[in-house]
Amino acid sequence: MHFNWCTLHVSNLEASVTFYEEIVGLSIDKHYFSGSDKEIIFMGTGETKLELIYQKGQNEISMGKDISIGFETESLEKLMELLKEKEIPITGGPIQPNPSIRFIYVKDPDGLSVQFAEHIA
Fold first, then answer.
1. Mean per-residue pLDDT for 100-115?
2. CATH number of the domain within which 99 lies
3. 48-96 pLDDT, tens per residue?
4. Domain total of the chain
5. Helical spans, DSSP H, in 1-121
6. What stretches of 34-75 show up as alpha helix (H) in DSSP?
7. What is the pLDDT of residue 94?
8. If DSSP codes are grouped into helix, strand and coil, which group holds residue 105?
9. What is the reported pLDDT for 57?
10. What are the φ and ψ backbone dihedral angles of 117, each rounded to 5 degrees?
11. What residues make up the domain containing 41?
């Protein structure tokens, strides 16, 4: 058994795709239409994907306050520069709980907490 995807319902598909492309570095893998009012985009390469679902007319998305998704970055400093350039505030960190990792948190366009971690050699 393996992990296939994580599904996020989004209120603005374009804003979410832009965030996950430009900030996270994911590319669109598949794009589907389900009827006239639903779009589904799978992002990422390899085994695990991020699924974005946009339902026309669904403007309010409820993200749980106790959930986050995490991504590994090669350079937290470079990512923080990109976030500043894109005017995306860091909502937590940088935090370094031990010598081998440090991380930050930001919010995606719908308020989901996204963690970026740098593993330190």
1. 96
2. 3.10.180.10
3. 899 999 999 887 888 888 899 999 999 999 999 999 999 999 999 999 9
4. 2
5. 13-19, 76-85
6. none
7. 97
8. strand
9. 85
10. -120, 140
11. 1-57
In the numeric block, which tokens belong to residue 85? 């350039």
Burial of 10: CB neighbours in 10 Å, binned 0-12, 13-18, 19+: buried
Tokens standing for residue 107:
């919010």
Q: Token digits for 82?
A: 């990109």
Position 97 pLDDT exceeds 90: yes
13 phi and psi angles, rounded to 5 deg: -60, -45
117 and 80 assigned to the same domain: yes
**Which of the four pLDDT bands, split at 50, 70 and 90, describes residue 44?**
very high
- Which DSSP symbol is given to 11? S
- Give CA–CA dist 5/110, Å, rounded: 18
Percent of the chain with pLDDT strictly greater than 70: 100
State how far the Cα of 70 lies from the Cα of 36, in Å rounded to an integer: 32
- Whether 76 and 90 have beta carbons less than 8 Å apart is answered as no
In angstroms, the CA 67 to CA 22 distance is: 22
CB contact at 8 A, 63 and 91: no
Q: How many other CB atoms are found less than 10 A from the CB of residue 73?
A: 20
